[in-house]
Structures are given as C-alpha cells and as structure tokens.
Amino acid sequence: MGYRVVSGAQPHRPVRPTLLPLLLLVTLLAAVWAESGDYYDLLGVSRDATTREIRRGFKKLALTMHPDKNPVNPSAHDRFLQVNRAYEVLKDEDLRKKYDKYGEKGLDEQQGGRYESWSYYRYDFGIYDDDLEIITLDSGDFEAAVNSGEIWFINFYFPRCSHCHQLAPTWREFAKEMDGVIRIGAVNCGDNNHLCRRRGINSYPSLFVFRAGQVGLHFFHRSKDELVRFSMKLITTSIAQLWQGNVFSEIESAFSSGLGWLITFCSDTGGKTFDVVCSELILDVSWILSSILNYSGSILNGLSCNICVYSPSVICQVTGGATALFPPGSSLDKHGSVLWLNTLDSKEIYTQVINHLPDLELLTTDSFERKLAHHRWLVSFTFGDRHSASNEYKKLQALLRNDHIQVCLSVCLCVCLSPLYIHKPCVAVFKGLGIHDFEIHHGKDVLYNIVGFAKDSVRAHVTTLRPDNFPSDRKEPWLVDFFAPWCPPCRALLPELRKASIQLAGQMKFGTLDCTIHHSLCSVYNIQAYPTTVIFNGSSVHEYEGQHSADGILEFIQDLVNPTVVILDPPSFTDRVKGRANGQIWAVDFYAPWCGPCQALMPEWRRMARLLSGQVLVGSVDCQRFQAFCQGQGVRSYPEIRLYHSQQSYNGWNRDAHSLRSWALSSLPRASVDLTPETFKSQVLSGRDHWVLDFYAPWCGPCQHFAPEFEILARILKGEVRSGKVDCQTHHQTCQSAGITAYPTVRFYPYQGTRRTTAVTQADGHWLFPAVLNVLNTFLPCF
Fold this sequence. Notes:
The protein is of the alpha/beta class and about 775 residues long. It is about 40% helix and about 20% strand. The strands form seven sheets. A five-stranded mixed sheet has the order 1-3-2-4-5. A hairpin with a 2-residue loop joins strand 30 (about 750) and strand 31. Helix 23 packs across helix 25 (about 655-665). Mean pLDDT is about 75; it is low at about 1-35, about 270-285, about 285-290, about 290-320 and about 765-770. It comes from Scophthalmus maximus. It holds the Pfam family Thioredoxin.
C-alpha cells in the first residue's frame, strides 16, 4: 500500500533548494515505512522488545500519526490502523507467538480494527510508563513479583478513570519517597483485564498491599503522607532502644550470634527538640532497615538515645547524630573495624553499608563441582572481575536462607564455557545433584524476580538442556521448551513450566533449550518461532498448541495419555465417520495449523471432547496435510466445525468448550419427553414408573443452560428412570399445583408400591450430576 505526502498551504510558492533533500528524505522514509509489513519495524522496536517498550513505541507513533493530528492526509486512517494492529498483536503474548511463527496469516482479521482518540493516547495511555520508581506489572510477571517475599504496594488503575489520573502525581511522589524501602507497582487494568478480574478488582484506583503473595489491606487514603505512614507500618524490622542499662548486653548478644550493629547516636540536649530529633532518626533508620536488614540479615540496628550521658566508654566521644556500623567480631571500645558514616542522609548510609557488607563466597575451578554436588546453590556467574557482580546480590543470602539455598559467585573460566554453555553473566540455580542439573534465570535482573525464580526452581523439576543431555533418544517422556531469552512470551511461559513439572513429577521430565546458543540443535527440529513446546515420548513427537499456562499444558498432556480427539486422515474419516454405526454421532474440526482461530480452538476442542465423552465422538482433520481431501468435502475456510448426524455446520459466535458442547448436545435425539397436564397426571402421578422431571420456563436463561445437562441425565437414567419436561409458561397451573416456585426445578417422583413420594432439587444453571444422583440414590440404591 502506498502513501502520499501532503504538504504546503501555498502550492505556487517555490521550494528552496536547501529543502529539497529534506523533502526527498521524508518521501523515501514514508515509502520505506509503507512497504515494510513487519510489525516490529512498524513500531520501531526490536524483536526482543518488552511489553513496556512496545507500548512506548506505539505511543510515540500514536501522538504523531493519529488521524486527529493529520486531518488533511487521506491515508492517515489506513496508516494508523496498520500501526494499531501491530500494537494489538505484539502486546498479547499468544498473538505475538502466532505472528512470529506464521506471520499475518496466523492471525484473526479483527485485531486492531478500532482505535481511540488522540487525546486518549496523549493523556490516558500508559500513565506510569515513564516512571522508573514505579514498576508496571502485567500478567506475565505479576505472580513472580508478589510471591517474591518482598512487600509490594500496587495501584490497580484504568486509563479512563479520572480518579486514577488525580492520584497519579501523588503516587509518583510516594514512589520516589519509598524507593528502596518497598516495591511500588502499577497494573493497567485496561491492558490486563483478566488479571484484574481474577484479583477481584472492581473499582479504580484500587490500592493493595501484597506480602509473600498474600493480599493485605485495601488502602483508601490518598495523600502522600498517609501513604508513607501506612507503608512504614508494614516494615517489621524492630529498632532497639539502647541505653546505659542494656547497651553492652544487647550488642554482645548480637555479636555472639554473628550479627553486627548499625547504631545511630542522638544526644539529649534538653528541651522538646530531643524527642523530635530522635523520632526523625528513627524514621530514617527504619528506611535503612527496610532496604538492608530485611534482606541481608547481616546487621542489627540500634538507636542509642542519651547513651553518651551515662556511658564512660569511647562511645561518649561521639557527637549527636552520628551513625556507625559495628560488623560482627568488632568491639565497642576499638575503632579499627568500625565504619563511621559521616552523613545523616538515609540513602547515603544505605549505599555505604551495602558496600561494606562481605562479598559473596567465590567458587573456584577446584571447588566448583565439589560444592555444587551436595547442596542447593544460587550462583552468580560473572566474566572477568568478581566485583562486576551487583552489590544488591549480597542481600540474597538472607532472602533464601529459609529455603536452604546458599549463594555464591563464580568468575567464569573454562567451567562455564565448556560443560555449561554459559557465555554471558547470569544467575543459575543448582539443585544439589551435581553441575549438570541446573536452571538459568531469564527474568528481570532485580532481586524480587531472582528470589522468586530461585524458590520456584528448587521445588520444580526443570533442567537447562544442552547437546549432551538433550532427550532425543530417551525412553521416558520429556517436555522440551525451545525458547529465546529475548522473547517475552518465552519468559512468561517458564514459571508455568515449573508449576506443571511439580504436578507431573515422576511422570514426565521437563527441560528448556536456548536456541540462541544451540542453533543447530533447534534447526534439527525445525523450530521457527519461540516458544515452541514439544513432547517427546519415545518415537512420538507432539507440538503443544494452547495457552501459555500450567493448566493448558496439563490438559494437553492428559489428552496425549488418554486422547479424546481422534486424529482423522482420509481413510479413517471414510471408515469411521462416513461409515459410522447407526445412532453414532461425530463432531469434526477441519483446521489448518497456521490458522490463528484454529489454534485458539484446539484446547477448547479437546476440552469439549472430554465433556462429551460417551455422548459424541470427536475428531479433527489437518487440511494443510490433506488439502485435496478437505476441498473434496467442501471445506472453504478454517476452522470448519461439522456435526455428522444432522449434517450441520457450527455457525455460533462463541467457540469455547461449553458453547460447542451445548450445540452438539442440542442435535442429539431427545431422551426426555414433553409432558402436558394430562400426561403428568396419568403417567407421573398415577403411573408405575420412576420419573425425574425438569420444570422450566422458555424465557429463563439458567433453564436454557441446564437443558443439555438434563438430556445427558436422561440418557444416563434411560431404562431405569423416565425423564420428562414441563413447560411452566404454557402449563402454569400444573406447575403451581406441584409447588414449583423457581426455575429450573428438578423433581424426582419414585414409585414405591402404591405410595408416590417426591424429592425436590433446585438448579441454578451450574448443574452437578453428583447432586442429582445423590437424590436418586436415596430411593434407588443402584445409583
């Protein structure tokens, strides 16, 4: 598609020669942009761009290319539609993977068909994208963040919410004030609607505290001072008040436990200012504690008020307001190992203390294999200088102590490159089974992400694969995730693999292969997009197509073990579907692997097959592989869903498992009968059969949802209990005389000799067969 460049309000004014090169450049750039169909190029981002980078790239283009800003350009609408479509696809993990693998032909045509006004992108879009102190969380990293063990204060907002915009300046100031104390986050519920709904967010802005995954108080106050005061109460580290009577016993007790002290001294100058000075110091020391002590565990803290008045020791020479670090093993009356901090600024104190903490243990080439063989370790690999490791990593030892994970540093030499294939600085967890059982961290290089990864990794059963341990010829089943570290959907999938590996422990092994390092091995399996997840089960190879979630993976594997969808080829279709037995019903999905809607349907189709087990046979035909056959069956588009009993195609809008199941069941021959007032009296009340009845109204939504469930019940009971339906709109008096007050109502009429009794069960549309069968079992033990 070509685009014109419209310029100038004075068409006859000559163009200056110096402007000609500029106009030519603009024209060429417009032509190049128009010819480029790559979504990443359209947004001006790399293929490894994060969700935030994609959002920022789109916003930059939206502010300049939006049709509202280019009213005289007739092609502005079409150009912006293309950019908007690129954004809608790349911001979504599943759509992004499909685009990477199949290009535009793997996508639904509807993405990006609508866009907002220019003012929306200018004022409402991505409120906190440019704020470094506020961490914007999305569905891919939310769980890892709130389960990391750190305290998170998160603002759930909606872009069009006026109260959210009013809070934004205060939230930014609050985030700067609390930087390093607790984590300040934001979730855009416009882009992460499912996440917010799952978390029960129903108003905006909603402010919630998360500690180790647990939701804390929903905070309602909105001023910065109230937010700060509330947040400081979340800090659980205690500050010891040191005085003449306890100073030596407290300090020596800590030293004997291997802990040091950070002491701030304030002297009593008399008057009311003393309490104010001490209170301010307590607040500053609390900030330092929350930044250091909650994580490192290597120091204790005391606030010594009025100590100099009573103590005859060297401490009496300290002027009010000074702060000192007494490391473990130091002495109160010796200056040698004490670090005096000549500042009252809490952040400067924090920096000096962190720098003074002991470095991580260094693993040498000789000790590497020996130490990693028997304990769980988190290893930071660096290249060259050991000091290139982050000082923040010093906090990891305390954060992981309860999980019995030791932390160390390894300066990479031959041990990294040859057996481990580690070529750049990274963090990895070794699980205590030697140097070959490890997993590399590919998330954000921040403490909360590393801690969450380490805790999950030691419990999970996921191994980093290399050519020497790749399971190409193993007899036991393996799930292998082919990925690239720069790929955001890949990083989002990794924690889901860990969850799935825990549930399938002992049944299936899990591994990940980095295709940026092992290009040739990935090429052997024709890996074209990331992530590509493959099940190796002996000689069988199955590629996973479904949602990037542990539940989706588990369902897929369950279906491989006990398949409910029959894979049909032309001979088996002719034999089993065309030549089906009398009364047998087939539902068949004609699909193409590159088709986006087909891929979205696959997990729902498998789920539907499980729901229809015993009622309808379910199959699928790959029309890319059997193209001529599908054309011969009259298949013109994908997916094409057909029911071979009533010879009808599915034309419904919803393609979820329950909608498809209801459609299939509605086509089955009825096992229940409609009852009139006369047949109700003669066959139910006066007859000698057991009856189960569904009293319903045609206008009742739950009744409509329950109708196919009742038919399944009727089929299960056929031959033992007769099933009937009574339309209470048409036969209102009959239902009223039976005492029916709500719809649907299921009533069981068992016949016991000459006595007719009833059992009533109320349904609400979410029908459970055990509840029905329990009622029946009261009267008929065979059920």
